[in-house]
Amino acid sequence: MEYILNPTFSLMLAVLVLYTGRILNKKIPFLTKYNIPEPVAGGLIGAIIFFILHNYFGYTVSVNKLMQDTFMLMFFASIGLSANFAKLREGGKPLVIFLVAISAFVVVQNGVGMIVAKAVGLEPLMGVVAGSIALIGGLGTAGAWGPIFETKYGIEGALPMGIASATFGMVIGGLMGGPLARYLIRKHHLASPINQQKEQDSNSQVSTEPEYIFEQPKRVRLITSDNAISTLGMFAFALAFANIMRDLTVDTVFELPTFVWALGGGIIIRNVLETVFKRQIFDRAIDVFGNTALALFLAMALVSLKLWQLTDLALPMIILLIAQTVAMWLFAVYVTFKVMGSNYDSAVLGAGLCGFGMGGTANAIANMQAITNMYGPSHKAFLIVPLVGAFFIDLVNVVVIQAFLKIFG
């Protein structure tokens, strides 16, 4: 029997998940030591409870999908609303280098997938399903490509395997980013943990200056009701733009995931208001609403994971996903970290890469927040990862998937 929670109960559950994660992180040193984000800790507990309800009592509990998607779109819109052209120019050469490196990883991810899939007796193209489609693309991309692989390429089970792989990736992406960055930081002596009292004093200070969005989510932001209303208006316009463009471009060469249009809408609205109408944009309010939407979306997404789908994976599929996890770790440590400068910023970028390389940009931001909360800010990482992980990489992913299908399909 399936129960779909209404918006009120979905929001209540998300808040409970977040506070559960916060309590767990305070009580269990392992979680803090390895920088596990609060939504991941609390969300996995909720997912395990729902797994037990499903397997032993026959109940399936789901959150309100419209509310979850709305928070996701708000999160991506907030990235767009924070991306003025000056900040894009500020990204400069490091942004280009990171994009090139990650574009190479999309090819590596699919290559590893196809090689391992063939070695364990699966259809080689299944390696693409369990590669960049499910891992970099996430649940939405897996759901979109699965039926195409089944109907056009005759690969049975592509849809459920894609969904299961994306589920696996979301969990692993949230779990491995923090430990990876911590390993790099400690190995190369890149930073020391922030004194706890100093961090509390910093967080308690009221911020009145423009902030790098998402970088210090626990810091107090000074906003007014007027700021909040105008900011919510910009979010509404960005989400409306996303829905309109989704409907206009469906089944065309310009079709993109709705969240990409939300991000693009935010960029357009931000820069039109600043350059054409000379309006001041309140980054502090965008920061607050963006972080709130991110936390609630992650909580809902993780608590909604259908863990029983992972139990249905055959041994070959499990081997394939383990190989992808190893490939992600090795690429982040020996390629991304090196080409981005082998410094603290590149370690934080590695945590972000694990997030969107295995699960999604929301995981990437949460991973990096866990690191910067402990070791200090990384402006470069929080500038580059949202732009690459939420926008450019999706375009690259589509091109690479199409290329693999043309060559091997």
From TrEMBL:
Catalyzes the sodium-dependent transport of glutamate. It comes from Acinetobacter populi. Belongs to the glutamate:Na(+) symporter (ESS) (TC 2.A.27) family. One of its GO terms (biological process) is L-glutamate transmembrane transport. It is a multi-pass membrane protein. The gene is gltS. The chain crosses the membrane at residues 41-59, 71-89, 95-116, 128-149, 161-185, 227-244, 285-308, 314-335, 347-366, 381-405. Pfam families: Glt_symporter. GO terms for molecular function: glutamate:sodium symporter activity. GO terms for cellular component: plasma membrane. HAMAP family: GltS. It is found in: Cell inner membrane. This is Sodium/glutamate symporter. The keyword Manganese does not apply. Keywords: Amino-acid transport, Cell inner membrane, Cell membrane, Ion transport, Membrane, Sodium, Sodium transport, Symport, Transmembrane, Transmembrane helix, Transport. Its main location: membrane.
